[in-house]
Amino acid sequence: MPTPHNEAKKGDFAKTVLMPGDPLRAKFLAENYLEDVRQVNGVRGMLGYTGTYKGKEVSIMGSGMGMPSIGIYSYELYTNYGVENIIRIGSAGSLQKDVHIRDVIIAQGACTDSAWAHQYELPGTFSAISSYDLLEAAVKEAKEKNIKYHVGNVIASDLFYHADGEAAMSWCKMGVLAVEMESYALFSTAAYLGKKALTLLTISDSLVSDEPETTAEEREKTFTAMMEVALEIA
């Protein structure tokens, strides 16, 4: 049923939803890869679409930026619309010198500087990890497509503009591959609800090298390797 954030009706979403942060990336992907596509949500400009890819029903919807935003949309997709799998397809900043612009990261787990997990009242620290079967399928697909990919940990941060400009380097020393802003909340929500989730990221900029960063339009329309892996495993 519709929510304050989603006008879609029951049955409008497929069992698997691809979630870019940017709703315009959702629009680009839907218009260029799906057949028989229809828009199912437009509340607050958070565009959502459902169509078919190679005969398989798939949905694509923006998540917005940050854990609170993806937390709302993923929770409602899982609980109100019967979605079983969410695959985040986002951008990230590299924290390792061997992780280059346009490389793809398949996130095995997510660290965080957020207090997101306090709501679960756990007697310790929750390790937010992706669903292994989705991860395994993504690795297989990336290999078949000869995509340069990395599997490992990312840091989902609450802060884009951090008062301590060197804070990210602490995560770098722990072997964390890249920084983004959503995966910890997505993985935690999926775990709490007994659902599945995965994050695929394309490196858009680097915090440890002088490689030129990608533009907003490039992030919207040219991160197709990651998008195609997600579509194939959806």
TrEMBL record:
Coiled-coil intervals, chain numbering: none
Q: Which SUPFAM superfamilies match?
A: Purine and uridine phosphorylases (SSF53167)
Recorded catalytic reaction(s): these are: uridine + phosphate = alpha-D-ribose 1-phosphate + uracil; a purine 2'-deoxy-D-ribonucleoside + phosphate = a purine nucleobase + 2-deoxy-alpha-D-ribose 1-phosphate; a purine D-ribonucleoside + phosphate = a purine nucleobase + alpha-D-ribose 1-phosphate
GO cellular component, alphabetical, reads: cytosol
Q: What sections of the protein cross the membrane?
A: none
Q: Which residues form the Nucleoside phosphorylase domain?
A: 16-229
Listed CDD domains: PNP_EcPNPI-like
Which family would the database say this protein is a member of?
Belongs to the PNP/UDP phosphorylase family.
UniProt xrefs under PANTHER family? FI09636P-RELATED (PTHR43691:SF11), URIDINE PHOSPHORYLASE (PTHR43691)
Describe the function of this protein.
Catalyzes the reversible phosphorolytic breakdown of the N-glycosidic bond in the beta-(deoxy)ribonucleoside molecules, with the formation of the corresponding free purine bases and pentose-1-phosphate.
**Protein name per the record:** Purine nucleoside phosphorylase DeoD-type
Q: Which organism is it from?
A: Kandleria vitulina DSM 20405
